[in-house]
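hey so u asked for the seq, here:
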Amino acid sequence: MNSSASFKKKYAAYQWRLHRNVLAYVLILVVLMGVMGWAEHEGLSRSLIGPIFLFSTVMIYALIGVTGRTSNAEEYYVAGRRIPAFYNGMATAADWMSAASFISLAGALYLQGFSGSGDQAGGLAYVMGWTGGFCLVALLIAPHLRAMNLYTLPDFFSQRFGGHWPRLLAAWSAILCSFTYVVAQIYGIGLIASRLTGVQFEIGILLGLGGVLLCSFLGGMRAITWTQVAQYIILMLAFLIPVSWLAYKQLDTPWAPLAYGSQLSKIAELEQKLIADPSELAVRQEYFRRAESLQLKLENVAQSLQNEQQILEQQVRDLKLQNAEFSVIAQARRDLLALPKNAVEAKDIWQKAMQENYLRSQPLSGMPLHGKAFQGEPDGTPQEQVQFQNSRINFVALIFCLMAGTAGLPHLITRFYTVPNESEARLSVAWSLFFIAILYLSAPALAVLVKFEVMNNLVGSSFSELPHWLAQWSRVDSALVEVSDVNLDGVLQFGELKLGADMIMLASPELAGLPYVISGLVAAGGFAAALSTADGLLLTISNAFVHDMRLGMKNGMQTQEGRVVLSKFALLAVALCAALVAAWKPAQILALVSASFSLAASAFFPGMVMGIFWKKASRKGVVLGMLLGLGVTLCYMILNTATARSLLNWTPETGLFLGIQPISAGILGVPVGFLAIVLGSWAWPDRPNSLMNHDSATPPLYPNL
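ran it, structure tokens below
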């Protein structure tokens, strides 16, 4: 009894120290924002505000990471299992609200509306899927896994099913889905760092990578937990200030989630006005003309490429004979050098450009009506009926994949190993939902408020009076912002402005007319969101190599300290590989993240659920389920990539099962995984005397735990 009272007293003192430290951090952050705002008012250059914000916040994270350094295995892997539920919920929310949630979620709602088009699920699917996934974690997963005192998710497969293959497949699956996820985060880090500092995108990736390693390299989960608490506070401030200001500016109230609904009817009116506007029609006709021109080129790609080259070469010669200005000649040369090198490359580039121009030739540049439930019409033409059906299927499919993927994400599940007991794990999930809901209720509001600002105030402006942030962001990446006077009237039409999904949140302070210091805060918030998730993902991957795959065991790395050191160097190597892949800009942030959820759902969700709730699930059954579930998902994704579809000469409809998009491939893999586990367990049941609670091939790494 005395020992229990003594423990409670010590734990209460520990919590009080945590509250004091977090309060001190908040005060430091408020003072930093006040000083930066005063400095901007006194004339501090914008080119310095961004780097100062970046340096200051990263140094705070680095200080936390260095003070949290450890070589103890339990501290490194699970933060000593003593994180209070409140702070673990905050850290989980930061871990969860990655670059996709912070940067791209509002952008998805802006571009796709609530339910999306027939081919893409709307942004509301992300809100519902990710939130519902946490309910699955609370009900089905977190308490059961916490009771087993594990370090990683593959540990569950090892202890529940025994043998070598369940653990090995779980480790490789964790690496696959986590690496896909972390590439998206590092891409977001490079995007923000390049905007904050003005350096090239690739250099921005390296700067951000340094921040990731400072947070996670020395202290593992112990350091990551407290840096994520710090990052959550920054990213929440960064998200709530712009959306609250926009709501106050448009609706005279800062409570955006409660008041933004009144703007939906105004947006519906503006959409109909833009659809009928003659100037918008002229823009759409020009894009259609460009698409038709590209389609003619594609009829004979080699000849068209040769003709293009001859025309540009003649243009350069004519400009030289006319003694034209050097800048004009240089531009003609750049156009010549920008031509595709061969017919295969030309076909790929022109096909993408043709599809883009056809899309922008549609009303609202192909964007669906924001408030419409589903695209198409259930009683319309056959094409409209197909679009309506596809829209509903993709909406439900994406919600399912995000829910099941949330319940199977290795880096997220590990967060619930850090709390003292099962009841704290449940409470931690509840706090996580609360902290996440703050952002997820605000993201739809931000999308609506930004769309109203663009349609009502930005569209119709003279090109000579456009805000400078449009040009600045287009220099970072032309895919983020594209503005061109297509109908040559000197006035910006809605069809002449293309905003990428990753732009909506990052540019919201400038769009709202806030001081540039808030833009720096938003960029720092996006940086914090990407860093917090990247930290957990990199730790998961390095642990999969060292802890789960037992690398280094044959070279004398049996001690706890030795394996922790090996995990740190594995983390460094994985971080460098992820940075290299991110520098290629393989896809948008939201697409990469969504794909990782489908992979996690098909690889882990069936095995975890059956392993927890069905005693007859066998080792061979779960191996079969993981292989077939993940295999179906991967094959569907690979076959529906642009490269594969081009090689197979597939039409847009070919290769899609019921119209399901590849990012939602998990809806095919998960049922296959469940069915395979049931059939495999029936065909190859475990022997009654088999060892089900530990890996029979290799003794436990830490038997004293």
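The chain has a mean pLDDT of 79. Residues 542 and 571 are 5 Å apart (CA to CA).
lmk if thats what u needed
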